[in-house]
Write a structure and sequence with these properties.
By secondary structure, the protein is mainly α. The chain has one domain. It has eight helices and no strands. The longest helix is centred in the middle third of the chain and has 25 residues. The radius of gyration is 17 Å and the shape is globular. It starts with a helix and ends in a 7-residue tail after the last helix. The model has no long low-confidence stretch (mean pLDDT 81).
Length: 167
């Protein structure tokens, strides 16, 4: 899976436009019921999550920290949660889409944004940028990934052109 994440990070940013088209049109055209539209949309959100996970992987090689392992586990957990909730959404009518702890969508949305924050923190640390504004700007580029793939491409290539530091 690490190879797929690295491939997504190195891929030309045009993939984001194609993914955006797929995210909007495949569920609408292929799904006969609303629950399938939700399930396909949730499953396809794993693509930008894998991209951000790849950025986290790459940046953690350049600025190793104890948080890197926690961030990696958070990403894997979030990716699995998206897959499980997408499956639940496909199998369960929308009106009964509840668990004993409430609606699982709320939890995975929080995990989604926290994962992007971890990737933004790792990237800014690897670039030796400091301050909340650098992290927040990178975070917004990750959240709005269809634009962020274009803007962050130069930064990711610059990071990849230097050898990683020894841990």
């Amino acid at each position: 899976m690490r190879a797929v994440r690295a491939w997504l990070v190195d891929l030309h940013p045009a993939w984001s436009l194609l993914a955006l088209l797929v995210l909007f049109w495949v569920p609408v055209l292929a799904a006969p019921e609303l629950r399938y539209v939700v399930a396909i949309g949730l499953a396809l959100q794993i693509i930008p999550l894998l991209w951000a996970h790849g950025i986290h992987d790459r940046a953690s090689q350049y600025a190793p920290s104890p948080r890197a392992v926690a961030g990696d586990r958070l990403f894997v957990g979030t990716e699995i949660a998206f897959a499980v909730v997408a499956l639940l959404a496909a199998l369960t009518p929308a009106a009964t889409f509840q668990t004993p702890v409430g609606n699982p969508l709320a939890l995975i949305v929080v995990l989604y944004f926290v994962s992007f924050w971890f990737a933004a923190t790792a990237l800014t640390q690897a670039e030796t940028r400091t301050g909340f504004d650098a992290r927040a700007g990178t975070f917004l580029l990750l959240v709005y990934w269809c634009f962020g793939t274009w803007v962050l491409r130069k930064r990711l290539r610059a990071l990849a052109s230097h050898p990683p530091t020894a841990a």
